[in-house]
Amino acid sequence: SQQGEEDPQALSIQEGENATMNCSYKTSINNLQWYRQNSGRGLVHLILIRSNEREKHSGRLRVTLDTSKKSSSLLITASRAADTASYFCATDETGGGNKLTFGTGTQLKVEL
Amino acid sequence: EPEVTQTPSHQVTQMGQEVILRCVPISNHLYFYWYRQILGQKVEFLVSFYNNEISEKSEIFDDQFSVERPDGSNFTLKIRSTKLEDSAMYFCASSERTNARGYTFGSGTRLTVV
């Protein structure tokens, strides 16, 4: 698998439900970040979790990181139609300079 | 909230022409980047720039590409002799010194080569 693969590729839920997206990666990292992208628009930084952190919260977002499994999850609670977007994980690899390596993304659709 | 500004939002160019994509990073950020996203594909790293020089570049960033910070505020990506496969969304981003808070991306320039 490639660095930064998300699953599922697509997720459709009802408003009010929780959405969980997973990301796997292959290398050692300094941190892992989640970004959101509305269709055809720019990337918006959501949350960053450092390699020595296991869980982080920001509003309705909860991110976990398991460096032993090289995986992360993003949970959006009480989803809203406005959460409809693509979500990408991105890793800041150890020794990888300061660039980010993006995953393939999860397309989330929240229906009314 | 500070923003990264990119212009133009959409550029159409003839194959073989040169294009310059412009970006104004956040003023107190020290690292600048260009990424691209071909339609339906991953966001790919092109180049990072620090202290007025390229700090890292990907295999994509060949001699066709160049970056410049011509003054204290602008950061440009030049693509010489554009090809059809250069059609993509190009994102500029900037970050603070340690990237401890993530990047701030611009809204992108959609480049269409015809």
Structure summarized in a few sentences:
The complex is a heterodimer of chains A (112) and B (114). Chain A is mainly beta.
Q: How would you sum up this structure, described in words?
A:
The complex is a heterodimer of chains A (112) and B (114). Chain A is 0% helix and 57% strand. Chain A has 112 residues and is mainly beta. Chain A has one domain: Immunoglobulin-like. The radius of gyration of chain A is 13 Å and the shape is globular. Chain B is mostly beta strands and 114 residues long. Chain B has one domain (5-113): Immunoglobulins (Immunoglobulin-like, Sandwich), CATH 2.60.40. Chain B has no helices and eleven strands. Chain B has strands at residues 5-7, 10-13, 19-24, 31-37, 43-50, 53-57, 65-68, 75-79, 88-95, 104-105, 109-113. The relative contact order of chain B is 0.34. The model of chain B has no long low-confidence stretch (mean pLDDT 93). Chains A and B meet through strand 4, strand 5, strand 9 and strand 10 of A and strand 4, strand 5, strand 9 and strand 10 of B.
End-to-end Cα distance of chain B, whole Å, is: 36 Å
CATH 4th-level superfamily of chain A: Immunoglobulins
Order of helices and strands of chain A: EEEEEEEEEEE
Instruction: Give the biggest beta sheet of chain B.
Output: 7 strands, mixed
Number of helices of chain B: 0
Set out the fold topology.
The complex is a heterodimer of chains A (112) and B (114).
Chain A: E1 5-7, E2 10-14, E3 19-24, E4 29-37, E5 43-50, E6 55-58, E7 61-66, E8 71-76, E9 85-93, E10 101-102, E11 106-111
Parallel strand pairs in A: 2-11
Antiparallel strand pairs in A: 1-3, 3-8, 4-5, 4-9, 6-7, 7-8, 9-10, 9-11
Chain B: E1 5-7, E2 10-13, E3 19-24, E4 31-37, E5 43-50, E6 53-57, E7 65-68, E8 75-79, E9 88-95, E10 104-105, E11 109-113
Parallel strand pairs in B: 2-11
Antiparallel strand pairs in B: 1-3, 3-8, 4-5, 4-9, 5-6, 7-8, 9-10, 9-11
